[in-house]
User: Which sequence fits this backbone?
């Protein structure tokens, strides 16, 4: 999945049950929405490729 920022609704983010790769190009709001990112990551535990800021938000 590439940059699931404003393109996903909360319902769509919750519906994702399997994901191999989560990619964020940068942390601007239209590409990276923290609540969606955390929910998707917690549900699927995909490999994550991201800029430093996005990666730190997801992985702490």
Assistant:
């Amino acid at each position: 999945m590439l940059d699931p920022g404003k393109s996903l609704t909360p319902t769509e983010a919750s519906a994702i049950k399997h994901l191999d790769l989560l990619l964020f190009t940068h942390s601007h709001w239209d590409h990276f929405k923290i609540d969606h990112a955390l929910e998707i990551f917690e549900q699927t535990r995909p490999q994550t490729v991201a800029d430093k800021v996005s990666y730190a938000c997801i992985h702490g």
